[in-house]
């Protein structure tokens, strides 16, 4: 189930993707910020800010942790996976996370439900890695096809941190994938961010790009 849900969110090859994050405050859209995101099949992810006052800043996520690099500084700084990338989007959101590898899933009691007119099944996800940013996730997938529809992310304290609503499937290079996700802050409920993916393409990526000590050399 989780592996199939993963297949709608991530490609099977090394890839580069354009990502635009647009913040929504009390229903009003703000200017978007563009990122170029490089992702390896093992989940290593590098995001480079392309526009705005933070242009050139880099965010790296690997199994070893998360790092932030500012141009013209000596080295990258280690950060928490909950560090905000932009608005309601945190650094871990743009990583190529595989639910099937990092969570175990059980079908929730009274799992059958409807969201926006679609029949869905609720899954309770428990992190199998103690370093996971979210130890608990509730995930709703379509009852026919296991397509992700909604997810709720909980902090270690048990607090519901935010909700993600996944857009409809689109055809990208012959595959059905999700290219839009809306993250809603469940603490400050007037705040949300929309993540739009575009121009995804397979590309062989050098392993050296995903070393925090080499970020100054990646353009």
TrEMBL record:
It holds the Pfam family LolA_like. Gene3D superfamilies: Lipoprotein localisation LolA/LolB/LppX. Keywords: Lipoprotein. It comes from the Bacteria. Residues 48-216 form the Uncharacterized protein TP-0789 domain. This is Outer membrane lipoprotein-sorting protein.
